[in-house]
Amino acid sequence: MPKCTNCGFIFRYDKCPRCGTPAPQSGIKNAPAAPPPLAQKTDENKSELNQFFEIVCSITTTSDVDSVLKKVGSAAEKLTLTMASSIMLLDDDGKNLYFKVASGDKGTILTKLKVPVGEGIAGWVAANKQPLIIQDVSVDARFTGKIDSESGFKTKSILCVPLIANDELVGVAEVLNKIDGSNFTENDKAILTSLSNFAAVAIVNAKNISGQQNFFANVFEILTTAFEANDKRFSGHCFKVAQLSTAIARELNITGSHYKDIYYAAVLHDVGFIAEPEYSILEHSSNRVHPIKGYEMIKNINLLKSAAGLIKYHHLMYDGSGFPAEGLKKEAIPVGSRIISLVEAVEDMRFSVYPEEKIRQTVESQKGIKFDPVIADIYLKISE
Q1: Domains along the sequence of the chain with CATH
Q2: Half-sphere exposure of residue 177: CA atoms within 13 angstroms, side-chain side
Q3: Which of 78, 168, 272, 345 could form a disulfide with 293 if both were Cys (CB 3.0 to 4.6 A apart)?
Q4: Alpha-carbon distance 20 to 184, whole Å?
């Protein structure tokens, strides 16, 4: 099937049904005739299988549920030849649906809206856990038009199916308006149902991963509280380092797994002291062993592999001074380590009862020397 040279839509007509661009010509004289219907159907089946395979790979290789759901929505539009799609999830209290992903120019507007279960087409599907095809919404009393009025999209026909995992409703998926004006078919419903099953798996997997990460985060915080308990004056140090480190990370637009790595590393940056009981944790700025010990302790834990490297270099200064002395300096030092290095220095000064203005002056004077200048400027901005 040709691919539109304007919008990239794959279609089987003489012009793109989405934007009207004529089908590209092969440029070869005496080109062979179009394939017979059976061959064309085979090509369509291959396209569907490729879409499904891509989504399955996404589900098994990423915990980024938004990315997977966007692929599901895009595949649903292409395979059902529709103008728009959306995926709505059930909120925690089970009373409302909210838009998780929605295509089109007004998609971001929809993500701010909620639909009560039982209200409208999507609400009916959620309440009854049954798929629904409506060829003309203007004659169906369940269609409220509220979403259209907010988004500016004109819904003519709709196919909506429930997202169900382990017999529990997760949300609903819908596609709107066949591009060629035809009716939705049972094949369309089967395609969207299959894609929705993938989406439900992705959502459940993401929730499980999130729950596990929250569990481990709580364990890590309990662990740091335990080794801080050796000296009450040090209580809360690791939590404070984590708070300020993640605040700086957000200013740097660090997100996803990299953000989590910085959080884990900040919470556990002094965990190496557990293996060095003869040292006082108050000596963390001079003890050259604990960063390596901490790295060794957690490097083989899958969740913490990347965070382990940040812990290893959290006492390495921007100019390469500090420890461990491995020749790294400036941008060669992991950004998470550069953040934690500055933050721990700030917290040490606070522990020593430096006035905030003195701390700011010290950070300013060490920009480009001990501290990454960009990170130092961010600290100075957010600490005003």
Answers
A1: 39-207 (3.30.450.40), 229-382 (1.10.3210.10)
A2: 13
A3: 272
A4: 21
